Amino acid sequence: MLFMTSGPYARRRAIVLSIGLIAATALTACAPGAQNAGKSAEQNGDGALTVWHYYGGGATAPFESLLAKYTDETGVEVTPRLIPFGDFNRTLLQSATAGDLPDVALVNAFDTALFADAGMIIDLSEQVEKWGEKDQYFDGSWATTQFDGATYGIPHVADTYSLWYNETRLEEANTEVPTTWDETEATAKALSDGQNFGLVYAGIEGAEGSTAFILRFLAAGGDITKIDGPEGLAAMESFARMNDEKSTSPGVLTWNEDDTTLQFQNETAAMMINSASYMTAVSEESDATWNIAPMPEDAVQTSFLSAENLTITKDSANVDAAWDLVEWMQQPDVMNEYLPERNKLPVREDTASDEQWSDAKVQTFINQLDVAWAPDEKVAPKSAEIFTAIQNALQAVLSGQSDPQTALTDAQLVIDKALG
Amino acid sequence: MTTAPPLATELRASDTVRATPGRKRRKKSPRRLLNYLYVAPAVLFVAATTLYPLYYNVSLSLYDASLKNFLQGTLEFVGLANYQEQLANPAVWNGLGVSLIYTISTIVLMFVLGLSLAVFFNRSFPGKHLLRAVLFLPYILPTVVSANIWRWILDGSYGLVNYVLMSVGILSEPVFWLGRTETALLSVILATAWTMAPFAMLLLLAGLQDIPKGLYEAATLDGSSKWQEFRHITLPLLRPVALVVGLLGFIYTFRTFDTIFIMTRGGPGDATTVLPVLAYNEGFVNFELGQGAAINTLLLVIPTVLALIYFRATKKE
C-alpha cells in the first residue's frame, strides 16, 4: 500500500497525493452540475418539496400555514424558504446558475415572462390543459402567466390599487370623493395645510415608487412604451403641481407602501393611493373613519395589478408532486380561508363568488380587477427596468433635478433601449 | 547623514544571497514540498474567494450576458463593447462623480471626527475606556442597523433631526432630508462618516501614542502654545498614519453599497447613485449581467491604484 511504503520517496508520494486530492476535491466542487448531482440524490424518491417565496412580515405565517396544511392533508413534506423581496430575484438567478432552484417559486407576476424566457421555470400548458380550470381565472391575472403562447405559472393572489380616503377629513373640508384626476388634485389641495397632506403615495427609489405615476399616466390614456408623449407630460405635470402646491408630502420620494399607509393611518394624510394589502392594518391601527373609492379616471378608468404566480422551476426533481401542490392551492375553499388573512384578492371567479367578498370596501378592490393593468409579455421581462426609469423621472422632477419633459425624454431613452 | 539600519528580515535575506553565490536552483526537498502543502489551503481559499470571482467578473464583462443567454449558456463574446457602451453612458459618469464626491467628503469628515476623538482620548480621565468603547459602537454595528437608524433619524415625518431643529426654531417646517437632491448626498456622507470615524480614531490614537512625549515637553519649555504643538509636532508625526487612514478609508468608502442602498436606494433621481449601486441595478434589476460586470471592473480601477500606492507606502514604512 502506498502510505505504508517505506523509503526515500514515500513522503514525497504522500505529499503529491495529498495535493492531488485537495485539487481534485476543489475541482470537483467547482465543476458544473456538481451541486445538481447532490441535490438530486437528496431530493429524489422522498417526494419532499421546496417552496421559495418573498412574503415577509405578517404575510409569512399565513402562507407557511397554508403549506403546512397541505402536508397535514397529503403527508408530502413542504419546506418553505422566505427570501426578502429585494433579494429574491438575485437569489433565484444565483440558484439557477448553480442548478439549485426550488421545486416551486412564488414569483412576482410581472417577472413570470422574464423567468420563462430565461428557461428558469417550466411550461405548464400540458398540466393546465388536463386540469381544465383556466377559464375560472380573471383575465388580467391569467395573462401574466403567458409567454410565447404557453402557460408558465398559475396565479396565486391578486391585488389592485384604489383611492383610500378619510371620510371625516373630506366632510370637514366639505368636499366630495374625487372621481377624476382633476378632482383629485383639487381635493388634495383643499385638504392640505402644510403639516397634513391631501394625498400620499409611495414614490421610493426603484420600481415600487413608480406605481402611482403609472396609474395617473394610464388614466390619461398612455401606453407604457411611449412615456414621453402628451399623456406622460400631463401625468408628470399633475404630480409636479401637487408637489409644488404641497398637496402631497415631499416625503413620498422616500416612502414605500408601508410608510404611506402609516401616514394615512395616523391621519397626517387624507387620501392615499394603495393596494388592498393594508386593509387589516388600517382597520386595526387607525381611529380614522375611512373608505375606498375606485382609482380616479381621466381619459379612461384604470387600476394596476399587483400579483404573484406559482411556478415550477427547471431544477425540480418532483414536477408531478409540485403540480399537485399548486393545484391543491387553487381550490376555492382553501383560498377563501387563506386570502382574508393576507388581505389579498381572489384570482378566480368561483373563489370571488364567496359571500365574504361582498364587503363594499373589498368589492371596490375586486371590481378594479376588471380594469387592472399589467404589462404584456413584451414589456413584462423588462418591466423592472422600465418602472425604475419612470420612477427616476418622477424623482428627478419632484426633487427639482429636472423639468417634466426632459425627465420623460430621459426615461424614454431607457425604455427604448430596454425594449430593443 | 545617518542611514537607518536594515531590518532583521532584510539582513537574513542578504546573508542567504551572499552565502550561495551563483548557485543553481536548489533541488526541491520533501521539506519544501511539505511547506507548499501547508500553504495550499490558504492559496486555494484566496483563489476561490478572491481571484476566481475577480476573473469571472472580468470575463463576464466581455460577453453579451442577459438573463436568458447567461442561464442557457449561449453567451456571445463582444470584446470591449460593454466597456465602450458604459463609457458612453452618462449614468456611469454621473455615478463616478457622485462616488468621488461621496468618498472624498466622507473621508474628510471621518478624518476630522476621528482625529478630534483621538486627541480627546489621548489623555487620562475617569471613564475613558468605557466612553471609548461606546464611541466604537458605530463601527461594529451591522451596516443594515446603522443605515436604518440614520434613515429614521433623518425621516421627514418623525425623524429626530427635524424634531430637534423645529423645537429650537431653526426649521419652520419638516425637511425630507433623504428625499431632496441637495440634502440626500449630504445625509449619506454624514451617516458613512459616523460609521467610519471610530476606525479613524483607533488608528490615529495609536499614531498619537507613538509620538514621543519628550517632544511636547521640549516644546512647552520653548514656550509653544497647544495649537503650535498640534500644528508642528502632532500633525507632521501623524502623517504616515493619516496616509493609511486616508487610503484605507477611500478603498472602503468608494465601494460602499449597503449604506446608500438602505438609506436612499441611490435616489432621489440619481443624486446618490454611486457606481456600486449603478452596477447592482444593471446586473440584478435589469439583469444585464455583462454591463453590470463592466461597471464593476471600471469600479475596481481607482481603488486598485490606491491599493498599490498603499502597499508601496507601507513597504517603505
Automatic annotation (TrEMBL), chain A:
The keyword Transport applies. GO terms for cellular component: ATP-binding cassette (ABC) transporter complex, substrate-binding subunit-containing. It comes from the Bacteria. Keywords: Signal, Transport. GO terms for biological process: maltodextrin transmembrane transport; maltose transport. InterPro entries: SBP. GO terms for molecular function: maltose binding. Residues 1-31 form the signal peptide. Coiled coil: none annotated. Pfam families: SBP_bac_8. Belongs to the bacterial solute-binding protein 1 family. PANTHER family: MALTOSE-BINDING PERIPLASMIC PROTEIN, MALTOSE_MALTODEXTRIN-BINDING PERIPLASMIC PROTEIN. This is Carbohydrate ABC transporter substrate-binding protein, CUT1 family. It comes from Mycetocola miduiensis. The lineage of its organism: Bacteria, Bacillati, Actinomycetota, Actinomycetes, Micrococcales.
TrEMBL record, chain B:
Keywords: Cell membrane, Membrane, Transmembrane, Transmembrane helix, Transport. It holds the Pfam family BPD_transp_1. GO terms for cellular component: plasma membrane. The keyword Transport applies. Residues 96-310 form the ABC transmembrane type-1 domain. Its main location: membrane. It is found in: Cell membrane. Belongs to the binding-protein-dependent transport system permease family. This is Carbohydrate ABC transporter membrane protein 1, CUT1 family. It comes from Mycetocola miduiensis.
